[in-house]
Amino acid sequence: MKRRWSTLSSLALAGALALTSSPFGARVLAAGAGAGTIKHVLLISVDGLHASDLQNYVATHPDSTLASLSGMGVTYPNASTSRPSDSFPGLLSIVTGGSPKSTGVYYDASYDRTLYAPSDTSCITPGAEIVYDESIDYNPNATDGGRNATPDSIDRDKLPRTVDLGGNCIPLYPHDFLKVNTIFQVIKRAGLRTAWADKHPAYDIVNGPSSYYGVRGVDALYTPEINGVIPDPDNMNSTDIGTTNVTSTIRYDNLKVQAIVNETDGHESVTPTVNAGVPAIFGMNFQAVSVAQKAYTGGYAPDPRAIGGFTPTGDLVTALDYVDTSIGRMVHELGIRGLLTSTQVIVTAKHGQAPIDRSTLRRIGHQVGPVLGAAAAHVTDDDVALVWLNDQSKTGDAVNTLTANKSKIAVSDPSTQILSGSRLARQFGDPTDMTNMTSYPRTPDIIVTPDLGVIYTGDGPTKKISEHGGFSKDDTNVALLVSNPNLTAAGTTNTAAVSTTQIAPSILSVLGINPLALQAVQLEKTQTLPGLNYGGTAPTGNGTALAATMVQTNELSPTVTDAPDAVGTVSVTADPAADQVCYAATVSGLTSRAIEFHIHHGAAGQNGPVVVPFVVPPTDPNGAATAPFGGVTRGCLPNVDAMHPGLVEDIAANPGNYYVNLHTTTHPMGEIRSQLALAQNTGGGAATPELGSGELVATGLLPLAGVLLYRRQRRARRGVARQG
Questions:
Q1: What whole-number distance in Å separates Cα of residue 135 and Cα of residue 464?
Q2: For 216, left (φ over 0), alpha (ψ -120 to 50), or beta?
Q3: CA separation (Å) from 646 to 582, 639, 650?
Q4: Domain for residue 535, yes or no?
Q5: Residues 20-73: pLDDT tens digits?
């Protein structure tokens, strides 16, 4: 049946086009530290791995692979994953740079007010439960999902349905359920190979939406079904699936580990005889730790000597040792192939697991749905409950009902543990705003965060002892380690509070791709991870050497005088032959955190448009909260003439017509500034570089209408619509 395309669909498409048409698209490379040095990123999610798990393992296993990676890496003990902390939003935070507010994905089982049930083949009744797990496989009992352990194993008849632009009622695959693009799409569009391995064919979602230039993001997406029967060479009659016990999970994870080894050798994931080239981005998730944390034969025991006060026991010890050995196998293969120094290894987790302290465990059954009854259109619950209502105007009544039953749903303080209304909207978007086609269809009306230790599941001696999805520290404080032998901060701990959303822009930056090519990075202004400094001097290269000393007294409209000691020394090389601008900068004495850093076109005493964006210096790399702020940055921006023909040559010939300007949170129009001039010493001024906190140039801060305005201005002026 054909249906008229709705106005809401038109708005959604307009928003998508506005984002994908950003002037800082995938073809414009960013000046990230490590760009040119790092050719590959190996991304590993050890699902369930807490920050404390990583720290304790490194401390008690000094000869382990994780200890070795930590010794040549930066560890972030205060990293947080998404809220909710389910596998889907957790992974998407890592590969999109965004939270559910931008991705529109809250769980692998959720609800959408505008989509249709799989059985509604004519798209008559909107409002459907959205399930993207093993249940959509052709055969969920087979490791290959019934086909070939790729998204081809998805049975389209089991998918929710949507109305396409032609009015046709069609299945909606997971990749098109996602509202923003992924690092895989951006990296592939830059002409590089991509690969990923995960636990269900439904992880097709990482391919990203078709609206992003029609790019299917992952060249090699290997998704063996974890709920399928896992072959056991010692017992051909075994019916164990990947989650039956830790032993079967290890056999399952081994399938993906072998795929990583094959890819490191330059082969296809599961066909080592076929050459494909080593991917620029590749990786996998481990399930063994998560399964062991949930199993009554695993979990944690109190240990006052351990960070966090708990140490792994039983099956969890086995799982952690297995993961360490398997990562060691990958690292060893990188070394054999001569790829270790050119590969950045990232170890993190989609989610944690709660509770760590088994004495707080309470399994109380599925209580929220029965309490609400017919008022609920759908409830997803684990150690959190997401509620979508049939009548959104009755949200207040539903909250009152839950509050009246607070003991039954295990909520001690309903005022803080039951989210709705403006408190929920600030974090996730307004579920009643029909002009917002991310929040309106997807955002729950109510989120219940029960007391720590509570799981909405049945009780019993062999039932799971932990779960994820919730907002607690046990759920969200995940491991994060970034490792490479050339990191100058190797072996250090960065205590800044960071998010796993910062992984995505950091990956693009280190590969030399502008993080602003990610739509969620634009929407949420996601920064790169602090403290990732690669050794060496600034890549000044050949060409005309320029210099500048930025101070407050050079700022115009408005003038600033509150930090007379603020200063920035900048070295720039404009190389028309190579079509690139390279730079190194050191700043100090700032009033607040740096947020933008550019070359502008404008003579002394004039404000003008941005023409060359720089990576922002990480002025608070360790979470500093008080002035003065300072830091260093460096990099190269290639292919400049692709955006601004003749710009590099003009900067080299007429440097006085350009100025460098650094913007801070206190002074967003600029805190320190200076005109460029010929350098007295072409080799001087190079600073030890450090990757900044992420570059938030004008397009990342403007609304979508501003992005389109920018494009019109750029065509007219070959500039950027950011003045000051």
A1: 21
A2: beta
A3: 16, 11, 6
A4: no
A5: 333 333 333 334 556 568 999 999 999 999 999 999 999 999 889 999 899 889
Asked whether 398 and 131 are in contact (CB, 8 A), the reply is no
Q: Does residue 1 form part of some domain? A: no
Question: Taking phi first (over 0 means left), then psi (-120 to 50 degrees means alpha), and beta for anything else, what does residue 146 get?
Answer: left
Token duo for residue 167: 């009015």
Nearest to 485 by CA among 622, 345, 326: 345
Query: Would you state the pLDDT for residue 32?
Result: 53
DSSP designation for 418: E
pLDDT for res 2: 33
Q: Which two tokens stand for residue 92?
A: 């998407």
Domain, as residue range, for 416: 364-381+391-435+442-455
Q: Taking Cα atoms as reference points, which of 55, 93, 52, 79 lies closest to residue 498?
A: 79
25: enclosing H helix or E strand: none
Contact between 224 and 203 under an 8 Å Cβ cutoff? The reply is no
pLDDT digits (tens, 9 = 90+) for 491-531: 889 999 999 999 999 999 999 999 999 999 999 999 999 99
Higher-confidence residue of 219 and 579: namely: 219
What are the CA-CA distances from residue 603 to residues 570, 596, 655, 658, 710 (Å)?
Answer: 17, 20, 9, 6, 22
Q: Is the pLDDT of residue 488 over 90?
A: no
Residues 318 and 171 in one domain: yes
Pair (290, 373) in one structural domain: no
pLDDT at 683 over 90: no
Strand-pair partners of 534: 487
> Considering just the CA atoms, what is the radius of gyration of the chain in Å?
26
What single DSSP character describes residue 106? -
Q: What value, to the nearest 5°, has the Cα angle with vertex 651 and ends 646 and 654?
A: 110
What are the angstrom distances between the C-alpha of 81 and each of 76, 92, 383? 12, 10, 15
Q: Which of 179-193, 282-296, 681-695 has the lowest mean pLDDT?
A: 681-695
**368 contacts 381 by C-beta, under 8 angstroms:** yes
- Whether a cis peptide bond, with omega within 30° of 0, leads into 355 is yes
What's the rounded mean pLDDT across residues 383-389? 98
Would you state the pLDDT for residue 665?
Answer: 87
Residue 420 sits in the same domain as residue 478: no
What's the token pair of residue 150?
């790729």
Contacts 24+ apart (CB under 8 A), 150-154: 150/201, 150/221, 150/222, 150/223, 151/175, 151/201, 151/202, 151/203, 151/204, 151/207, 151/221, 151/223, 152/201, 153/201, 153/223, 153/225, 154/201, 154/202, 154/204
Least confident of 366-370, 655-659, 666-670, 715-719: 715-719
Residues 52 and 144 both lie in one domain:
yes
**φ, ψ dihedrals at 3, nearest 5°:** -130, 150
In a domain? residue 22: no
Q: Are residues 431 and 573 in the same domain?
A: no
Write b or e for each residue in 403-419: b if 16 or more Cβ atoms lie within 10 A of its Cβ, otherwise e: eebbeebbbeebeebbb
For 485, the token pair is 């032998």
Question: What pLDDT is attached to residue 300?
Answer: 98
Total of domains in the chain: 3
Report the mean per-residue pLDDT for the chain.
86
What is the residue whose two structure tokens read 């080799």? 683
Contact 44/84 with Cβ under 8 angstroms?
Answer: no
CB-based burial of residue 304 (10 Å sphere; 0-12 exposed, 13-18 middle, 19+ buried)? exposed
The per-residue pLDDT for 278 is: 97
Q: Does 239 map to a domain?
A: yes
What DSSP designation does 211 have?
T
Q: What is the pLDDT of residue 20?
A: 35
Which pLDDT score is estimated for 680?
Answer: 65
- Amino acid identity, residue 673? R
Is the model's pTM score more than 0.90? no
